[in-house]
Structure formats: structure tokens, C-alpha cells
Design goal:
By secondary structure, the chain is mostly helical. Helices cover 55% and strands 3% of the residues.
Length: 193
């Protein structure tokens, strides 16, 4: 279970750095589909967070896992769970506990953009946030409390794995791709010994 959770988180987060060969929408070969397509692709569905609007299914899949991951992390921090990420996300958690969710919404959008744009999403999916080194360095990103270690990143992957499972992402092929994506961005994210 731990390995599946780690794999699921890794694949989702690293997706932005690893590109999977994509194919046309009418090609149903799983080997030819991008990770974004495997998560629903460009098929439009009703956006449950924005009544009357449509969203690409692949983007909705990423957003759902990202939002669940954020909720799990913040919940553990607020509950002071052992080994939580309190130091990492202290600036954002401080805002959330004060009733300000603006930067959580920004974080969700940035992560969703990042994964959607870098795993085969349509041209409407673009990422304009910080590069991975700057995004995870408190000196360049005031929303990051401290630098991450490998153990921190492993724990984060666990959160992603749990979030993926809660959102129905259980296919071993997809999980392995998510893990590959997450592992491909470990080096720029992990900046502490």
C-alpha cells in the first residue's frame, strides 16, 4: 500500500517534467496516450466547482488529486500530526487558519496547471509559475517555510498516493507513470540534506 501511495504521488507531481508520447484522440492504444489522456484527456465535463462551466476531464482529475493532497496536508498540520509538514507550509496554513484561502487557491491552480501542461494537456493548459528550484526555496518563495529533504518528499508522495486513491486513480499503469513524473522532479525540489 505504501509503495502504491508513493507511486501515485510521484507520478502525479513529476508529470510536469516528464512528457509521455501523445497520440490523436481517436487512437485508443494505451501505450500511445499521454498521462493527461489516461486521466480523462480533453473530453469536456461539467465542472463541479464552477456551475455552468465545463472543464477538461484530465484537468479535473489533476485538480481533484491536488486539492485532496492539499486538504490532507493542511489537515495533518492543523491537527499537529506527528511528522507533519508544519514548517514547510507554515505561511499558507497560517492564512488558512485565519480564514484566508487565497494562496491555497493559487497553489491548487499552479499545481494543476503544472501537471496538466506537462503531461499532454491541451494548449489551453499552461504553467506560468516559478521553476521547481525557486518554487521550493524559501528564499525565492515566501509561501515555502523550509527546504525539503528526501524524507519530506517521500512523505509528500505518500500524501499524493492517498489523494489519488481517494479520487479513483488506482490503475497500476497510471500510478507507475505518476511515480516516474514525481521522481523526475525530485532533484530540484529536494534542496536540504
Amino acid at each position: 500500500m505504501k509503495n502504491i501511495s508513493k507511486l501515485a504521488l510521484s507520478a502525479l507531481l513529476i508529470g510536469s517534467m516528464v512528457f509521455v508520447t501523445s497520440c490523436s484522440d481517436d487512437d485508443d492504444s494505451p501505450k500511445m496516450k499521454s498521462l493527461y489522456q489516461k486521466l480523462g484527456g480533453t473530453t469536456k465535463v461539467a465542472d463541479p466547482n464552477n456551475p455552468g462551466q465545463m472543464i477538461e476531464m484530465g484537468r479535473l482529475s489533476y485538480r481533484s488529486v491536488v486539492d485532496t493532497t492539499i486538504t490532507l496536508i493542511v489537515g495533518d498540520i492543523v491537527a499537529a500530526a506527528p511528522g507533519n509538514f508544519g514548517a514547510h507550509f507554515a505561511p499558507i496554513v497560517g492564512e488558512v487558519t485565519s480564514g484566508n484561502t487565497t494562496n491555497v487557491a493559487v497553489l491548487s491552480k499552479n499545481l494543476t496547471d503544472f501537471f496538466s501542461a506537462n503531461t499532454g494537456g491541451s494548449a489551453t493548459n499552461t504553467y506560468s509559475g516559478l521553476n521547481m528550484v525557486d518554487a521550493h526555496n524559501p528564499a525565492t518563495n515566501p509561501r515555502m517555510g523550509v527546504k525539503s529533504t528526501n524524507a519530506d518528499y517521500d512523505k509528500f508522495i505518500g500524501y499524493v498516493g492517498t489523494a489519488a486513491g481517494k479520487n479513483g486513480v488506482t490503475d497500476p499503469v497510471i500510478i507507475n507513470e505518476v511515480v516516474a513524473v514525481l521522481e523526475s522532479i525530485r532533484t530540484p525540489i529536494v534542496q536540504a540534506p
